[in-house]
Amino acid sequence: MNAKILMRFAKLMIFVLTVLIVSCSKNALDVPISNKDSNLTLSVGDDYYIQYTGDINLNRTEKVYDLDLFEAPKWVVDSLKKKGKIVIAYINVGAYENWRPDAKDFPPEILGNEYKGWPGERWIDIRQIDKIAPIIRRRFDLAVEKGFDGIHPDNIDAFENETGFNITYEDQLRYNLWLSQEAHKRNLIIAQKNVPSMAKDLYKYYDFAILENCFIEGWCNTFALYYINNSKPVFAIEYFENNPNIESVCRYSKLSKIYFIFKSLDLDYKTATCTAFK
């Protein structure tokens, strides 16, 4: 009996703590379940193109373009919009990058461990939203100024990594919901990037998903469950360097309705799709 009481008390405390943490983020759970103010129509079955390096190929037929916020000139975004494309801005919201034009704006006390494999990149302490918020808001504002339609927020999985900070799931949830709120305030759609363990808590507040290596790592189904089944598209990238079995990936794509694209790690113009397997 005592064990049962303790278990119920523990579950109650976890629930209360989660509610308190999330409510501290300016009513983060009041984030619109979808971006109702947007005129965009992003649907399951839409196709997707991503390129961050080299001259952007403006002649692709895909509906959705994913470009780097800082690297893509406004005229490129404008050209794509005139062609009816939906253009998404890649923004690193979870790590500092020393080559970005706003790198000097990051307070040293929020900089953590180096991001392994990416020189010049360091994790940031997402618990300190008050110090991060001005930087992220300026970046989202720049996305609006350049004409982007949405946000591709990278590194929203600090709690699963060695950041140098004691970041919990609840800390990450609070931050990720805040990001959704800030995007929707600006009439921008926003993607959940990876982190399948959070899909159950984020799919109502995010408009679509962008995944990397989900097929080769075996976790795509989570996003089919929470996003595809709720009529929200999922765009998945598999990298040539990992030698994916393209035919197998494309068979799965047809069954799951997740849109797959194959790219090199430098995300240049080189691209393969599942068109040949339809």
Descriptors:
278 residues, alpha/beta, TIM Barrel, nine-stranded mixed sheet, three-stranded antiparallel sheet, 20% strand, globular
What's a quick, concise take on this entry?
The chain has eight helices and twelve strands. By secondary structure, it is α/β, with parallel strands linked by helices.
Describe the structure.
By secondary structure, the protein is an alpha/beta fold. It has one domain (31-277): TIM Barrel. It has eight helices and twelve strands. It has helices at 2-23, 74-82, 129-146, 169-185, 199-202, 214-217, 220-226, 246-256; strands at 48-50, 64-68, 86-92, 95-97, 111-114, 121-124, 150-154, 189-193, 208-212, 234-239, 259-263, 271-273. The strands form two sheets. It has a nine-stranded mixed β-sheet. The protein has a three-stranded antiparallel β-sheet with strand order 4-6-5, with no helix packed on it. Strand 11 and strand 12 (271-273) form a beta hairpin. The N and C termini lie far apart (59 Å).
Outline the fold blueprint:
Elements: H1 2-23, E1 48-50, E2 64-68, H2 74-82, E3 86-92, E4 95-97, E5 111-114, E6 121-124, H3 129-146, E7 150-154, H4 169-185, E8 189-193, H5 199-202, E9 208-212, H6 214-217, H7 220-226, E10 234-239, H8 246-256, E11 259-263, E12 271-273
Parallel strand pairs: 1-2, 2-3, 3-7, 7-8, 8-9, 9-10, 10-11
Antiparallel strand pairs: 4-6, 5-6, 11-12
